[in-house]
Recover the amino acids of this structure.
């Protein structure tokens, strides 16, 4: 327990002192500022009612849905970037540099090291997305009087999506060096998001086969349905045609999660880390 | 029965006890049945050409590499177990410390990892001992390779480990640094700690080690005391009629000289090889 705390402090200090954190912090602050300005312009331009062809749409609901959908995507993306940068070299990358050996030659268990490393980065990045989500939600509410339908659940889903991505990154860092791992995780990340769009296309077009195949793949990469669940929970409901218009946007609408999604994501994280710890414990450094 | 157990007790508690150790990395057999012992208060040099298996052996002892067969124990604990890792200090051949930590923070971090209660006093003493007192607050990324190696040595001594394993500790050091390591190792011996020093620098090993183990292609090619290993070697004798080189043990030298004198030769010079260990080493390591 003592050694685990020492490692936790070390990983936390690394996260804070590395430039990655500063860079992501500055970019986030800039984006939040840009978002505030964009939201003000967009709500102002939309007014009470928007006319889309011959359809009249509630301006606040339409713009709010679009904006918060884009914002949640940006939060997921920045959180994932941070998680990957902070853990892409967790095991093999650090071992190749000779950073890991002096630590694991000490009486710190390898499993404890891996778990603590994952835990600290996951908590850190999850707090980051939750803070970004809170800031964006408050800005959207103050500027456009559009508040998330469920204020807490989007943050929970987003945080869990980031935990899944962190676990995947730490796990694959056992076998992949730093650069290869970063590339691999971002490919998986992109594949998950692309697959989510296929689910959406399947739903809109009624192509059942596409929808089924993409849904199965979504279970294998649960950060994507979690992201969709976050968008869904934040979206103020609209009726009928307006709902369809909102749903068809690439960033808005989201998908209603299965009740099994959260338990499955937690199981997924536990299984991923168990496999990673087993492989790590047998690895020559 | 009680007597036998008592007789075996020292065996169980050798600082390092390696028995018939094998390690294969896929098709590469890095260790092929290595055995060695290091007792408390003993400094053992691990010699061998590049690729002989020195670092692999050391890494097995530190729990970084899993052996394929055989046993390795540290202070009676299976190598790699928490107990084994808790009783040793290790300087890796290739290592880096986090570039964003200062010298003092690195030592403090390892004090915490090792559970040392030495605190600030131990930190200051170790940093001073390796000649880094002037740079204690400097960040690792502002240290030269040699300074990092000094820091690595200080790190290995955190928590007063009973077993100290140094893998090529002087590879980046200046002559002054090398002398510092020699003196430090001598101090460790006096304090009753066990030291395993891997090196390819023969002179260094000759000066500080009680015993030497020479590895060659994953096997022990020779071992023994420095004097013992070098005892049977060449002596150059310069007489009135020329210079002759004899293969002879140290004990044979008086007889050789007496022979010359009996034959009425004038003996001007009797010169044992200067690099005696080097000769013995090259003999053992070269393909015959
Ligand atoms: N992780 C590894 N994977 C494959 N081969 C290795 C690995 N580590 C060492 N070897 C091989 O094992 C042999 C011994 O290496 P090493 O113990 O580093 O030698 P030394 O330290 O004596 O120079 C070499 O042939 C080396 O190539
Ligand atoms: Mg080596």
């Amino acid at each position: 327990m003592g050694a685990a705390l020492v490692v936790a402090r070390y990983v936390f200090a690394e996260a804070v002192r590395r430039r990655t954190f500063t860079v992501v912090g500055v970019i986030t602050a800039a984006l939040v500022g840009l978002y505030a300005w964009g939201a003000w312009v967009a709500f102002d331009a939309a007014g009470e009612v928007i006319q889309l062809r011959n359809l009249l749409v509630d301006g606040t609901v339409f713009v709010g849905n679009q904006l918060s959908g884009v914002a949640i995507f940006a939060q997921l993306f920045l959180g994932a970037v941070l998680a990957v940068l902070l853990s892409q070299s967790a095991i093999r990358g650090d071992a190749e540099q000779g950073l890991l050996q002096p630590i694991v030659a000490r009486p710190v268990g390898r499993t404890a090291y891996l778990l603590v490393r994952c835990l600290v980065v996951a908590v850190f990045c999850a707090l980051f997305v939750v803070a970004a989500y809170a800031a964006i939600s408050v800005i959207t509410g103050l500027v456009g009087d559009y508040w998330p339908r469920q204020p807490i659940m989007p943050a929970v889903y987003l945080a869990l999506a980031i935990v899944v991505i962190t676990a995947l990154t730490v796990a694959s860092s056992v076998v992949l060096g730093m650069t290869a791992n970063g590339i691999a995780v971002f490919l998986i990340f992109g594949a998950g998001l692309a697959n989510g769009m296929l689910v959406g296309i399947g739903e809109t077009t009624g192509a059942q086969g596409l929808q089924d195949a993409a849904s199965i793949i979504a279970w294998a990469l649960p950060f994507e349905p979690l992201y969709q669940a976050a968008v869904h929970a934040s979206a103020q409901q609209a009726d009928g045609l307006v709902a369809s218009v909102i749903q068809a946007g690439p960033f808005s609408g989201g998908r209603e999660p299965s009740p099994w999604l959260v338990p499955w994501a937690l199981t997924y994280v536990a299984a991923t880390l168990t496999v990673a710890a087993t492989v790590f414990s047998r690895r020559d450094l | 029965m009680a007597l036998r157990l008592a007789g075996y007790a020292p065996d169980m508690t050798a600082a390092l006890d390696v028995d018939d150790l094998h390690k294969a990395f896929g098709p590469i057999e890095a260790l092929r049945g290595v055995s060695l012992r290091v007792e408390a208060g003993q400094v053992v040099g691990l010699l061998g050409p590049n690729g002989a298996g020195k670092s692999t052996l050391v890494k097995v002892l530190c729990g970084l590499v899993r052996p394929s067969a055989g046993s390795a124990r540290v202070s009676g604990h299976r190598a790699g177990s928490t107990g084994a890792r808790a009783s040793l200090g290790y300087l890796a051949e290739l290592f880096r410390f986090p570039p964003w930590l200062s010298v003092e923070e690195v030592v403090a971090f390892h004090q915490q990892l090792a559970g040392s209660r030495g605190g600030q006093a131990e930190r200051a003493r170790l940093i001073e001992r390796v000649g880094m007192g002037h740079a204690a607050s400097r960040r690792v990324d502002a240290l030269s390779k040699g300074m990092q190696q000094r820091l690595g040595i200080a790190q290995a001594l955190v928590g007063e480990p009973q077993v100290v394993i140094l893998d090529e500790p002087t590879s980046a050091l200046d002559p002054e640094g090398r002398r510092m390591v020699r003196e430090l190792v001598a101090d460790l011996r006096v304090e009753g700690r066990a030291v395993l020093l891997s090196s390819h620098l023969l002179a260094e090993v000759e000066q500080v080690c009680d015993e030497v183990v020479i590895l060659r292609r994953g096997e022990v090619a020779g071992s023994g005391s420095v004097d013992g290993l070098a005892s049977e070697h060449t002596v150059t004798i310069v007489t009135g009629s020329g210079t002759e080189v004899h293969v002879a043990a140290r004990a044979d030298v008086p007889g050789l000289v007496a022979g010359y004198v009996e034959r009425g030769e004038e003996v001007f010079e009797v010169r044992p090889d200067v690099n005696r260990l080097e000769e013995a080493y090259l003999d053992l390591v070269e393909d015959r």
